[in-house]
Design goal:
The protein is α+β, with helices and mostly antiparallel strands. Helix content is 18%, strand content 31%. It has three domains: 11-165, Jelly Rolls; 180-249, Immunoglobulin-like, CATH 2.60.40.10; 264-570, Glycosidases (TIM Barrel). It has seven helices and 32 strands. Helix 3 (361-378) packs parallel to helix 4 and helix 6 packs parallel to helix 7 (559-569). Bound molecules: beta-D-glucopyranuronic acid. Residues 149, 310, 344-345, 391-392, 445, 484, 529, 546, 548 line the site of beta-D-glucopyranuronic acid. Beta-D-glucopyranuronic acid is lined by residues 149, 310, 344-345, 391-392, 445, 484, 529, 546, 548. Residues 196-252 form the Glycoside hydrolase family 2 immunoglobulin-like beta-sandwich domain. It is an enzyme of class 3 (hydrolase).
């Protein structure tokens, strides 16, 4: 899905700001800022603990110039949205982290205002990605249960726009551009007609919906070097251009050879983090300044990459990574497909993961939608080098194969140019996992020295080495990325004895893990869990959230941050 754009033929108007807000759709007695998570804003718990639907309302002026196709475009609404204009439903969307657009052309009159209501439903059930369950408490109120660690923030999380585009318009473009300087493109337009394409910086043009343009001696997009080019697409009618769209792309190749992950033919070693869109008060809302701060800290610490754990991040993140040469493992919101995992890897199995009352064919259908939509959104981004189709699903159950095989195939069909993977949980080791052979890269989350062998780093190292050997023996010479390893750490807590939760132990833990990675040629990346402390669902295992950050939630460095900086900035890659 293309992002809205302001240009010669298109207009857009952000609808950020204060909306009227209601819990019942009748009494609008509060206001709520957009974009924003609703949960940490109000001083009372009524909104925070509300399980169900809430309502945003405002009048939107449609400018006189909006005479083309007028739409409302949402970056993300978590988790379900029903959109109404002047009382008529114009669209609904399931899934909290991907964009959608509602056409409102026939319901609005340019030069007048209209009433927009967005009904947001924060409930997760087993057909959702991520899945969850709403239960009724003894007092009759509802509780949301879910199997992932991070807090279930909800709201209109990203900027929404009022958009005007020409009736004949560019619907989509797919670009594949490798080191050879050839830009293969395929344009989809709303109705047939003449198409002109130009690689602006390369000064080469062509015509037709599909073709290839060659740029002489292209400046490659590479890690740390976000060289971007612009493909200008013009829909032509006689002498006039009726629509145009500019899509940025980069010339680069990604491939796997043995255990190497090659970017532009060179082995790449991932350093960085699994992250979260998570901030005090903002919750999961996107904010440019907060994001920029995170990116600056990534740069400071020597991270060359990140994983969008555990859902697709705002498009602003992806643009930034494209521009700055930050390598991205792009993940769907499929987290928590695992009944044995509750709040990190603590917890015990309550029921079988795959089955009619649990993760089922409806979950799979929606999971497939998220794969399609994620790839549709990010397919032209040079920063994205690998699709992660799930985080820590249960893959010990033989039924996991029937669930994942079609999804892996779908991801490959949607994008034959990038490798695919899924992130493996510690409770599904090499001898129990039923799906790893379906993927190109082994991504594993391991907590030796924390959830197992806690405090005993010599033993942790032995167990970790044994497990890595096990993966290689069973699945052959494939790349392994350690997508999570970490230890909860209270900033400011120290000990001479490497006691758990201290900054000293976090550093010792990282040292021990790093030693194991450095001995194993197949390990081609390390993403520490997590970049920063983050809010989690309530539970005895978490004291005001997950504390595995290299930075605190307000982005102050722990000792671990300096350790990683030293390690990563001295690495050759
Ligand atoms: C892993 C999950 C991650 C958790 C982490 C933890 O992938 O979401 O936050 O454990 O427990 O299992 O810290």
């Amino acid at each position: 899905m293309l992002r809205p754009q302001l240009n010669e033929t298109r207009e857009l108007q952000p609808l950020d700001g204060f909306w009227q807000f209601s819990l019942d759709g009748e009494t609008y007695d509060r206001e709520m800022a957009v974009p924003g998570s609703v949960n940490d804003v109000f001083a009372d718990c009524e909104v925070r603990d509300h399980v169900g639907v809430y309502y945003y309302k405002r009048d939107v002026f449609v400018p006189q110039s909006y005479t083309g196709l007028v739409s409302l475009r949402f970056g993300s609404v978590t988790h379900h949205a029903v959109v109404k204009v002047n009382g008529t439903e114009v669209g609904r969307h399931k899934g909290g982290y991907l964009p959608f657009e509602c056409d409102i052309t026939d319901l609005v009159t340019p030069g007048t205002s209209c009433e927009v209501i967005v009904e947001v439903d924060n409930r997760l059930d087993m057909t959702c990605i991520p899945p969850g369950k709403v239960v009724t408490a003894p007092d009759g109120t509802l509780r949301q249960e879910y199997m992932h660690d991070f807090y279930n923030y909800s709201g209109i999380h990203r900027t929404m726009y009022l958009v005007n585009k020409p009736r004949r318009h560019v619907c989509d473009v797919r670009i594949v551009a490798g080191m050879d300087g050839v830009c293969h493109y395929e344009v989809r337009q709303s109705e047939p007609g003449e198409v002109r394409v130009t690689v602006v910086e390369g000064e080469v043009s062509g015509t037709g919906e599909k073709g290839a343009l060659s740029v002489d001696k292209p400046r490659l997009w590479a890690p740390g070097d976000g060289n971007l080019y612009t493909l200008l697409i013009e829909l032509v009618d006689g002498d006039s251009v009726v629509d145009c769209y500019r899509e940025q792309f980069g010339f680069r190749t990604v491939e796997i050879s043995g255990h190497h992950f090659l970017i532009n033919g060179k082995p790449f070693y991932f350093t960085g983090f699994g992250m979260h869109e998570d901030h005090e008060t903002l919750g999961k809302a996107h904010n440019d300044v907060s994001m920029q701060r995170d990116m600056e800290l990534l740069d400071w610490i020597g991270a060359n990459s990140l994983r969008t754990s555990h859902y697709p991040y705002a498009e602003e993140w992806m643009d930034y990574c494209d521009r700055h040469g930050i390598v991205v493992i792009d993940e769907t919101p499929a987290v928590g497909l695992n009944t044995s995992v509750a709040g990190g890897i603590l917890g015990s199995a309550v029921q079988k993961t795959y089955g009619p009352d649990s993760v089922n064919e409806h979950t799979q259908t929606h999971h497939a939608d998220t794969i399609r939509d994620l790839i549709a959104r990010d397919k032209n981004r040079p920063s994205v080098v690998l699709w992660s189709i799930a985080n820590e699903p249960d893959t010990t159950d033989p039924d996991s194969r029937a669930y994942f095989e079609p999804l892996a195939k779908l991801a490959r069909d949607c994008d034959p140019t990038r490798p695919i993977g899924y992130v493996n949980v510690m409770t599904s080791p090499y001898d129990k996992c039923h799906i790893t052979d379906l993927f190109d890269v082994m991504m594993i989350n391991r907590y030796y020295g924390w959830y197992v062998d806690a405090g005993d780093l010599p033993t942790a190292k032995i167990h970790f080495r044994e497990e890595l050997d096990g993966w290689i023996n069973r699945f052959g010479d494939k790349p392994i990325i350690i997508t999570e390893y970490g230890a909860d750490t209270v900033a400011g807590l120290h000990s001479l004895y490497n006691s758990l939760f201290t900054e000293d132990y976090q550093v010792a833990y990282l040292e021990a893990n790093s030693e194991v990675f450095d001995e194993c040629d197949n390990v081609i990346g390390e993403h520490m869990w997590n970049f920063a402390d983050f809010q989690t669902k309530p539970g005895f295992a978490r004291v005001d959230g997950n504390k595995k950050g290299a930075f605190t939630r307000d982005r102050r460095p722990k000792a671990a941050a300096r350790y990683l900086r030293d390690r990563w900035t001295h690495r050759e890659n």
